[in-house]
């Protein structure tokens, strides 16, 4: 049994799929964890309209639908509502679909044949701002996306985010660097490694509650809605590297 959402606020979810049976199944799953379905759409165009009208806390999006597919709809919605996380729900396990989805702003990717427990857990964790993938899978995906996006700045051989030296790759990087505190840079590095809040807390000797606060601040400062996009943005801006940060005093 998957535990209900931790916070008292009832989370609002928009379901987008052109199959009624799928929408009904997802609805039951969402209600099981204590969230509320506030709307349904059957195609990408309707999804954009409903998202802008309802401003949900989460969108569950199918890929193959009439009038705009789910991946392109995700990209358009994220441009208008960057703070809203979107989970792609698909029958396709092809890694290329996952990469395209995350490139367009998706927070996660679920297969329709996944177990009910796995779907419930992924939705719950996304709504609570937690990681939704296994660390190894996460790292492979995030670093591939980062490699695809990098156009400048070679990765240095040795650098820890606890130092004051952060490579700059332009005005946007400078602005982001100045906004993030040293502790937030450490947390961002751990997020880029695919670590959960309890794992980050243990590594940096702080509480999970403190980690959650840092993650929320990072999302706000980087202008993203979820950990997936924070990791991609952090790496492409040169704020996170492929190594672990050294813990520092709180």
**What composes the largest sheet?**
5 strands, parallel
Tally of distinct domains: 2
Strand-pairing-aware structural class: alpha/beta
Instruction: Report the sheet-strand fraction.
Output: 5-15%
Terminus-to-terminus distance: 36 Å
Q: How many strands in all?
A: 5
Order of helices and strands: EHEHEHEHEHHHHHHH
> Strand order across the biggest sheet?
2-1-3-4-5
Describe this structure in words.
The chain has 250 residues and is α/β, with parallel strands linked by helices. The protein folds into 2 domains: 12-127, 3-Layer(aba) Sandwich (Rossmann fold); 154-236, Arc Repressor Mutant, subunit A (Orthogonal Bundle). Helices cover 50% and strands 10% of the residues. The protein has 11 helices and 5 strands, in the order βαβαβαβαβααααααα. Strands 2-1-3-4-5 form a 5-stranded parallel beta sheet, with helices on both faces. Helix 2 runs parallel beside helix 3 (70-80), helix 8 (182-192) crosses helix 11 (227-236) and helix 10 packs across helix 11 (227-236). The two termini are 36 Å apart.
Summarize the structure.
This protein is of the alpha/beta class. The chain contains eleven helices and five strands.
SSE arrangement:
Blueprint: E1 12-16, H1 20-32, E2 36-41, H2 44-54, E3 58-62, H3 70-80, E4 86-90, H4 95-103, E5 108-111, H5 116-127, H6 135-149, H7 171-179, H8 182-192, H9 197-204, H10 208-222, H11 227-236
Helix pairs in contact: 2-3, 6-11, 8-10, 8-11, 9-10, 10-11
């Amino acid at each position: 049994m998957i535990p209900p959402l931790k916070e008292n606020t009832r989370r609002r979810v928009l379901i987008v799929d052109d199959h009624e049976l799928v929408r009904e199944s997802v609805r039951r799953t969402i209600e099981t964890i204590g969230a509320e379905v506030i709307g349904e759409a059957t195609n990408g165009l309707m999804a954009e309209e409903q998202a802008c009208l309802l401003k949900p806390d989460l969108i569950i999006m199918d890929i193959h639908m009439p009038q705009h597919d789910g991946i392109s709809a995700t990209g358009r919605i994220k441009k208008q509502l960057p703070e809203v996380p979107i989970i792609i729900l698909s029958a396709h396990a092809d890694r290329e679909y996952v990469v395209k989805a995350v490139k367009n702003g998706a927070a996660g990717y679920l297969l329709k044949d996944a177990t009910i427990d796995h779907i419930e857990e992924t939705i719950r964790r996304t709504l609570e701002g937690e990681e939704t993938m296994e660390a190894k899978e996460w790292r492979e995906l995030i670093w591939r996306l980062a490699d695809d996006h990098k156009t400048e700045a070679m990765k240095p051989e040795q650098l820890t985010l606890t130092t004051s030296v952060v490579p700059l790759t332009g005005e946007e990087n400078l602005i982001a660097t100045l906004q993030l505190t040293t502790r937030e840079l450490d947390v961002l590095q751990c997020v880029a490694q695919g670590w959960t809040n309890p794992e980050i807390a243990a590594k940096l000797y702080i509480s999970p509650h403190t980690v959650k606060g840092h993650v929320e601040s990072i999302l706000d400062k980087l202008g993203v809605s979820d950990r997936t996009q924070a990791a991609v943005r952090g790496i492409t801006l040169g704020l996170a590297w492929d190594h672990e940060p050294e813990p520092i005093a709180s």
